[in-house]
Design goal:
Length: 443
């Protein structure tokens, strides 16, 4: 397989991206070269998502596009990996004869051996609850050299009624402190200064370890790593904040004042139906606790509208909560009825038009909140992580403030300066804003 050119398509969440990076490293070690274009590839790997219907459709459309390339003789091998392969291996294999291999979520480190014919067959989809997880497998950082995702757990042990992830990824398996610190140290030595901690349920990290540990303990170890400047916390489940976490976030300079905390809803009846394990009052207290302890915190959340049985009153309560809370960042999606989840069998399924209308109303309100937040940033001094020059002008750099997570939030356009270079964190004054982006000048 040495000398083959490989193109990866990574769909879905950052956790999927880390899986893709692990496969990239494994194939590189075998002498393969990576190409950013399928036009130049001998092998194409599509790492799929199957969280909701839209994600499944995108995955299938991408596979079919690459299958056509294989039919046309443009590529030699086509491999489908990840959540869609884990969920529907036999069905996909029957419907897509062009695909050479289907590889499940816990078998991704075997892709090199599978392509070489050393192990597996056309379908290599094992139990997602695999325990001999190789956390120390090499990984290629595809984020550009100065920022990286750091996955600290695999799977999820929550039982949210709408979510298929535990079925596809298995229960939570936390990564040990030593392993996390070891990878963080290696990445820092390569020039990474921003670490985005990810897991399906970040605040539950360590509860499954023996002896039991918690996220506060992990963070205290990570902030000691030389070279780390920013640590960002993503996918923090609101129910299970460990002792000391908020205080550490408020006092430790390396932990940026940013928190991604998916809430899904605020109505007690909807939260109960979702099996979220929390109530609206507890969520409001959590948000207030964070705002009080970290006054300049930027909060990102995710909401789900149109859940079975969600009434007009439930939705209006959610809308009012969003207006009151003024989340700086908010994403939302309409409920997707997924086979294999408890909510699939529920009565009172809402029609697609109602779900779409509620989603539109929520995001229209949020756009105004985001616009006002950015307008209030004008005149403020911020830190900006410089990423690259703008493709439109050599006089402009593109970067992100502490309040902008990679890929999901806006960016900051930074005026040129002789002292500015990629990977540098510079002080700047925000001079302009749009709904989602900022313009700033170096101090």
């Amino acid at each position: 397989m040495s000398g083959k050119r490989v193109h990866f398509v990574s769909l879905g969440c950052p956790k999927n991206r880390v899986d893709t990076e692990t496969m990239l490293a494994g194939l590189s070690d075998e002498g393969c070269s990576m190409t950013p274009s399928a036009d130049d590839a001998d092998i194409v790997v599509v790492n799929t998502c199957a969280f909701v219907e839209d994600a499944k459709v995108e995955s299938i459309e991408t596979i079919l596009e690459m299958a056509q390339r294989k039919d046309d003789g443009q590529i030699e091998k086509l491999v489908v990996t990840g959540c869609l392969a884990q969920r529907y291996p036999e069905e996909l294999a029957s419907e897509m004869p062009e695909v050479d291999h289907f590889v499940g979520t816990n078998d991704l480190t075997l892709v090199t051996e599978i392509l070489d014919g050393r192990t597996g067959g056309r379908i290599s989809v094992g139990n997602p609850d695999r325990r001999d997880f190789n956390w120390d497998a090499p990984r290629y950082n595809s984020m550009g050299g100065h920022t990286a995702y750091l996955k600290v757990a695999e799977g999820c042990s929550n039982t949210c009624a709408f979510c298929i992830i535990p079925t596809l990824r298995g229960p939570q398996r936390s990564r040990g402190v030593e392993s996390v610190v070891r990878e963080a140290t290696q990445l820092a030595e390569q020039g990474v200064v921003e670490f985005n901690l990810i897991a399906q349920d970040l605040t539950a990290w360590g509860y499954d370890l023996k002896p039991r540990q918690n996220l506060t303990h992990l963070l205290r170890a990570l902030v000691e790593v030389d070279g780390i400047r920013w640590i960002r916390l993503m996918y923090a489940y609101p129910r299970s904040f460990p002792k000391g976490l908020v205080e550490l976030m408020a006092t430790e300079d390396k932990i940026v004042p940013y928190l991604d905390m998916p809430l899904q809803h605020i109505s007690d009846s909807v939260l109960k139906g979702m099996k979220r394990g929390t109530r609206g009052e507890a969520i409001r207290k959590r948000v207030s606790e964070l705002r009080d302890a970290i006054p300049d915190i930027c909060m990102r959340t995710t909401m789900l509208v149109g859940y079975p049985g969600e009434t007009d009153d439930d939705f209006e309560e959610l809308l009012e909560f969003v207006k009151e809370s003024k989340f700086e960042r908010l994403g939302a999606f309409a409920y997707s009825r997924e086979e294999g989840t408890p909510s699939y069998e529920l009565d009172q399924q809402l029609d697609e038009n109602t779900k779409a209308a509620r989603l539109d109303r929520l995001m229209f309100e949020q756009r105004s909140i985001a616009r006002n937040h950015n307008q209030n940033m004008v005149g403020r001094e911020v830190e900006v992580l410089v990423e690259k020059r703008s493709e439109e002008s050599e006089l402009v750099w593109i970067g992100r403030t502490q309040f902008q997570a990679p890929e999901i939030d806006g960016i900051t356009y930074l005026g040129s300066s002789d002292d500015v270079k990629p990977g540098q964190i510079v002080r700047a004054i925000v001079t302009q804003s749009t709904d989602y982006d900022l313009v700033a000048e170096p101090v």
